[in-house]
Amino acid sequence: MNRTNELTLLPKLPLLITESPDEFDAVWDAFEREIKPRGIIEQMYVHDISSIVWEILRLRRCKVVIINSAFRSALEHLLVQLLKGPGQYGYEVGDEAQTLAHAWFIDQEAKKQVSEILSRFDLDESAIEAEAIRRSSADLELLDRMLTSLESRRNKALACVAEYRASLAHQLRESADRIIGGKGILRLEDAASERSTAA
Amino acid sequence: MASERQIAANRRNARKSTGPRSAAGKKRASRNAYRHGLTLSVASTKASAKQLDKLVRRIAGDTEDAIVLERARAIAQAELDLARVRRAKVALIECASAFGELDPRSLTTVTRVIRFLNAFYPGRVALPKPLDSSATMPSQEPDRSAEAIRRLLPELRKLERYERRAAARRDRAIFNR
């Protein structure tokens, strides 16, 4: 979509090197199509909403990666707990757990072996995910707070567009009333009544 | 409570330290409270002042009404502040993505202890190699950017507050609250 002159004045949203400007433009276009901004203020809000949504998407992607990257250490920790026999220390099975956790990502046989160990304790692979989430809970909590804050700002910006439109409509109505109730209109009406009396 | 003698001693001591005397020291001290520059006016550089004026004109239209112009200026200023915080956010993430962290960790204390021990037991304790934070970063995207964001979460949250304030200032100016 071609941007109007007004938008070239608005500062562009800086993107990360790895982010695609075309994808951001697609998000922006989608909001422009939905909101159909009129005037620079509404365009400012649409740009703001698109930027916030873009950041929300960025943080959501990050959330998934944070959990995924905690998988290996989560699995290793879990295996140490499960492999450890009574009276045994964690470090005694540490090497085995480490090797198995590493192999789980690349070797089907190791995956099967881990599943067997987990099933011995009535667990399945969701236990690994749960442990990964637990291990990254501090980061995830911060991310969630940021996401909540961004979502509330997005909703506020959407409400602002509606409020701005309503206030603009109110102003236009008032101006129209003033014009109708003003002298210019009266003169026209007077002229019309004069014409009818003359006839 | 401090006694008369203590108060007099404090005053005498305070007179001895009157801040930096050299030009370089004064210059350095003038930036003591400077953290990120995000509260600085957007009109602080010539280019940004020009951009601000253009945006003000676009918002206010042809009017010469001082009140309308002032409101338009407040809106434009907040909008440009918002853009500045967003630029800062992206720059921080890019920086952390490239180097693994913003400020390299200082090993001063550890180094000092090791030097002290080496004075008594020469060559027994080796100085640690400087930590390379970028080595602990994932090598591929999008994991690398995500890890950079994870490492920067506290800073990003602070910037988020600035962003929210700038947006609130803009909304107040638009709706004249």
Question: How would you characterize this protein structure?
Answer:
The complex is a heterodimer of chains A (199) and B (177). Chain A contains nine helices and no strands. Chain A is mainly α and 199 residues long. Chain B is mainly alpha-helical and 177 residues long. Chain B has a domain at 36-100 and 137-175. Helices cover 66% and strands 0% of the residues of chain B. Chain B has helices at residues 4-16, 23-30, 46-60, 66-99, 108-120, 143-175. In chain B, helix 3 (46-60) crosses helix 4 and helix 4 runs antiparallel to helix 6 (143-175). Chain B is flat. Classes of the chains: A mainly alpha (199), B mainly alpha (177). Chain A binds chain B through residues 6, 9-11, 13-18, 40-41, 44, 48, 51, 58-59, 61-62, 65-66, 68-69, 139, 142-143, 145-146, 149-150, 153, 156-157, 160, 163-164, 167, and chain B through 51, 54-55, 58-59, 75, 79-80, 82-83, 86-87, 90-91, 93-94, 97, 138, 141-147, 149-150, 153-154, 156-157, 160, 163-164, 167, 170-171, 174-175.
Task: Pick out its properties.
heterodimer; A: 199 residues; mainly alpha; 2 domains; 82% helix; elongated; B: 177 residues; 6 helices; 0% strand; flat
